[in-house]
């Protein structure tokens, strides 16, 4: 049986092992489990029920991540996209006054359009049109981005204190647990202990109990029955209005480049590239992502997209779709073991994000930053991703910087038609779309 599993996922061809894939899948899950509580919390502002959205989130993330593993066979996990859900909750349902049912209808239409674009190979062509220098910048930027997310999740970073970014006290509470976890992770990784990231997450969770960070109630129960999810809650009465069309265009634009840049960044980190430098099974991965959005909308969930937290599993050795299958199964198990998974605080998973950020910066040693044609686009891309808190925004500024440098060098022949088009589209995004 193990040989069939290895053969199906191509584990040996990608220099991996079944244990590495399982551990990688588990670590990715722990890095993403926060979405099961964060997403329902955001959508509660739009009028949705927390418990029902929790169930829908776990179902959508579970089934679509498993599909990614079986169809595209790469270690990419999916879940409702942050930023996209905030756009729906606070702009579509808030400022514009649409119902969440109408918003889900827009997500459904977006997903169907993405399926068509993916089958036609248009999204894959967009990825191919991204210059290699920008792809490298995205991978580095994602490394910084997830490190910033980890620091924020741990409560170490703050916006107070009179500065743009400040640091909270790390002598107690969640920041202390995160610092201990990160120190343990560094120690285990340096000593080359297998599963060092996973061990550190579990240890941090246990350490958090006496420190009051890991909440263990007196009536704690491992198993808890989930609420019934929403199903097919759509409203089609305003689909031909201008506002509805603008919403769909916004969702398409935001999701398109978030997905493209995430896939590129994680693929480069894990060397999930074919002999032509293209992402392995890219078309199938993009199709899965599109199916995920459509599938999620059926269960009351906003746009489902690929997650940069997948890089934590890749950093732990995951290279195939088996890791995604493991992550997906754990999301489904979260439906009945929600109280158990809820024990793991963000302070325990934050060190994994911070440490993986370091691992993703390793490729910078192979880049000639003294060459302005390479250095400037990479610097702008990797800087703007964490500073804007958006992968697509970083990609946008990177494209503009790349084109500007080529123009200043009078190398117009090196700017492809696709690059011109994408640069113009990104300028439109920066000017008119803030998410």
What does this structure look like?
The chain is mainly α and 435 residues long. It folds into 2 domains: 2-215 and 263-367, no CATH class; 368-435. 65% of the residues lie in helices and 2% in strands. The chain is built from 19 helices and 4 strands. It has helices at 2-9, 18-32, 35-43, 50-72, 84-95, 100-119, 122-129, 132-153, 173-190, 196-207, 242-269, 282-298, 310-315, 321-333, 338-341, 346-360, 372-388, 391-408, 417-432, and strands at residues 78-80, 157-158, 166-167, 304-306. The strands form 2 sheets. The protein has a two-stranded antiparallel sheet with strand order 1-4. A two-stranded antiparallel ribbon has the order 2-3. Strand 2 and strand 3 (166-167) form a beta hairpin. The radius of gyration is 21 Å and the shape is globular. The model has no long low-confidence stretch (mean pLDDT 87).
Strand residue content: under 5%
Radius of gyration, Cα only, in angstroms? Answer: 21 Å
Distance between the termini: 46 Å
Structure class: mainly alpha
- Total of DSSP H or I helical runs spanning 4+ residues: 19
Unreliable runs: none
Helix content: 55-70%
Q: Please provide the count of β strands.
A: 4
Number of domains: 2
The biggest sheet, with number of strands, parallel, antiparallel or mixed sense and barrel status, is: 2 strands, antiparallel
- What order do the SSEs take from the amino end to the carboxyl end, as H and E? HHHHEHHHHEEHHHHEHHHHHHH
Dominant shape: globular
Strand order of the largest sheet: 1-4
Average pLDDT, to the nearest integer? 87
Oligomer: single chain
